[in-house]
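WARN no homologs supplied; continuing
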Amino acid sequence: MTRPAEPSTKPSRPDRPGTLPGEGIGNRPNPDRPGKPDRPPAYRPPNWRPPAYQPVWHPWYRPGNGQWNWWRPVTYVALSQWLPYRWSTPVTYSYGSGGTVQYVGDTITINNDQSVTTQQYFEQVDTRASNVPEIAEDQADDLEWLRLGGFSIIQDDVSDSTMMIQLAVTKTGVIAGTLFNEVTGVPHPLEAMVDAETQRAAWRSAEGTNEDVVMETGIFNFSEEETPVLIHFGPDSRQTWKLIRLEDPEGDASSNAAEPGSAPDR
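OK structure emitted
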């Protein structure tokens, strides 16, 4: 995701563990989960097939199984069994007034309890998005993935979108995926890490560009058909947007929710 700004002057961040260099990088709901009739047009863009059909993925990702798995919502059970963190209670996040993460002025309050400055909060999210471990080519061949789904990214006060993302997670909490801009027709690889303590995921471009743009939400939020996401534009600016699950272009609503067994074959 980009914003009007000067080109990044930080194509790589060698001081950040796990950050890839900026250059050379090589559901539909179940039948018993009715759709939402007031969903905006971007929920299923006309005449558009999301990049799942012709994926341009992060170099670590290995596709497998039928691409129809993208339309299956991942479940709490699937995520809890897939990830190694032994969480007793799944946590979902909401942002802004009345949310679990509220921001007023230069202060951010979490769960009506912990308060930090916007600078401190951004540094936490930024560090989480940067701590993606380097994975060698031969290691990538052995990774197993659970698809989190494909989503439109929509501003709260806008009923249309030209940006879509797909994400998948490994058993060690590494997230990889693609952001696709329909206007430019250009896909951009994404990478992220799941935070074991907070159950949040923060991701950014894996290309080393727009490094101050970081998106976050709870890992269990990906089980929802529609969920809020907080987008940071550096430490001093942030907006709450929405992720809305993309419909199956083939109109097949008969598939069940994705389970750990739906992870791509190797």
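The chain has a mean pLDDT of 74.
OK
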